[in-house]
Write a structure and sequence with these properties.
Length: 396
Amino acid sequence: MFKIVHQRPPPPLPPKINPEIYINVDSSSYVADLRHMINNPLCADVQFHVESAVFHAHRVVLCASSMLFAKMFDVQQETDVLYNEYDATHSFMTVSKRLSRGGHVVTVISCSSEVKAATFLQLLEYVYTGYQRLERVSWEMLDEVELLGQLFDIPQLVRHCRYFRTGNLARARKTTAAVRGRFCDIIRNRFVNHMCLADTRFVVNGVNIPAHAPLLVARCDVMAAMLAGESFHESMTRKVNLKGTSIESFLALLEYLYTDNVPFGKTDPVDLLILADRFCLPRLVALCELHIAIEAEKIMESGDDNLDLIGLLLTAQCHNAVQLHAWCLDVIASKFELFSRSKEFALLEGEDLVYVETHKWPPLSYLEEEKEYRKTVDMHTDVEYRRNRLGRCSVM
């Protein structure tokens, strides 16, 4: 006789989880922005007369790179040289001052004949960017660049030239990285929220925050239009009343513009994201998006229920945080059962709601298959149970 064996059907295979949404951050434009300041008359407050050429420069950058200029402009004492009468003469340069057309004081530095225009331009590139493309210069010019490094008290440039001359390119690259880090540290410690060399004032919640127009204009198009454009009142007064933000967020914005670093530990990243969107800074927006997403993942992994991800999604949507908006939608869809039970779920509407319901996990089709599978399993279990009972009965 043949024995009929009833096999249970295999369970439905769970569908693949939606691919993760990654937040991308564009490469930094910090060095390129500072390079654009080289010999740029916009917001320049220093003029170098070298041979027959005139080079425009900015005190805040010069002082961060050279101790000679830091002493010249009294940076150590954190006083503003604009209000100090001075007339200094050095062995290789003569320093004076004059008023520009806009009423701002411009420092004029006339260099002696031993300083060459082409070599001085190489010096300025190093001062502003920390990079020196010495492979393009002759050995004679390399000697002249090293001499300028000594004259202007820039020891890191002197070391860079010597490393390059001896073929130690690895040390030269390490020097470049160290110089850029030191430059940003000096900018942060001496100029962010300090009156030293400040020429602009922001008023945030009734508090005056000093700032430096050259860096702001170079790093932010909105600031450039506001402080250097002809159609803005702020370009003449250099005073900006800023509403709708916190002091902490604005100081974090300043530190980013000055140093390319974001001090997330000092401010609310969502508030900073909103402010970055106001000033049209897409890279800062992306950095905030990435930080917020990482912190949100930590909260979810810890089992904390206080995360309002739907509220975060709506904020991202209002402030052009496109990547964070997409990330929130993906998380809500992948944890549909959890978020659909929250009262905030009713705030989803339009395309957002369609996306979540379309991409929710597990999808409706899988839930239906699983429901049918459970019914089939229950039926087979019932059949097996009755068969086992009949098998144990004996006929008297």
